[in-house]
Design a protein that fits this description.
single chain; alpha/beta; Rossmann fold; three-stranded antiparallel sheet; 9 helices; 16% strand; binds 2'-deoxycytidine-5'-monophosphate
Length: 225
């Protein structure tokens, strides 16, 4: 049976991973959360330098000591950094505040792009991120770009963080989202942008279910081609 590479890019807190997990589950595909990979590298750097600035030269030299892998099915996936499970640790506010800086560094993107392409080598994959349809798998047959109003996204992320036990004010979440969007969109390497052949969906006024139906219908169309 035909297998696709499905890419879901877009702004932070638009529900990319929720949709990607559901699609992967429904299709029996592998799910890869590339944001979690950038977060795991950020956590590694933070553990080396919890107080001062990140030493990017040192981080670049340490990349060959970093091993990232995923375990478990799409809806209960865990991420491991050098053998330690860090699924919750990578969602801490400290990591939220640093991750866009780390993700702007070319050697780090190069390192992760190689790993991401390896993960998708056999197709049958749903990968979400910021540059998956533009840089990592420009050849993918099925690409989506999700966006939404920033206050809707901040409320979403705020509730998500609370549920995970990370307390941060709604205002702080909003400020963080805005600055991350700006960094992600303006960086020189692989900036966040819609691939020319991606389908853009504004999810501000749509339920998770409605968005999923649209994505799934599109996937079925691509599978039928
Ligand atoms: O999706 P997320 O919030 O977990 O992503 C964390 C950060 O990683 C985000 O600020 C941008 C960056 N990122 C990226 O630059 N490229 C990707 N493919 C995925 C995430």
């Amino acid at each position: 049976m035909k297998k696709l590479i499905i890419t879901i890019d877009g702004h932070a807190a638009t529900g990319k991973s929720t949709q990607a997990k559901r699609l992967a589950k429904k299709l029996g595909y592998v799910y890869v959360d590339t944001g979690a990979m950038y977060r795991a590298i950020t956590l590694f750097a933070y553990q080396q330098e919890p107080i001062g600035e990140i030493d990017y030269n040192l981080l670049q030299q340490s990349l060959d000591q970093i091993q990232i892998h995923f375990e478990g099915k799409a809806d209960a996936q865990q991420i491991f950094l050098n053998g330690t499970e860090v699924t919750t640790a990578i969602r801490k506010p400290e990591i939220n505040n640093l991750v866009s800086q780390v993700a702007a560094k070319e050697p780090i993107r190069f390192f992760l792009k190689k790993l991401q392409r390896e993960l998708g080598a056999n197709k049958g994959i749903v990968m979400d991120g910021r540059d998956i349809g533009t840089v990592v798998f420009p050849e993918a047959a099925c690409k989506f770009f999700l966006t939404a109003n920033v206050s809707v996204r901040a409320q979403r992320r705020y509730e998500e963080q609370l549920a995970q036990g990370h307390e941060e004010s709604l205002e702080a979440v909003l400020t963080n989202l805005k600055s991350r969007d700006a960094l992600d969109e303006t960086r020189s390497v692989a900036p966040l942008k819609k691939a020319a052949d991606a389908i853009e969906i504004d999810v501000s006024d749509q339920t998770i279910e409605e968005v999923f139906e649209r994505l799934y219908a599109q996937v079925l169309e691509k599978l039928a081609l």
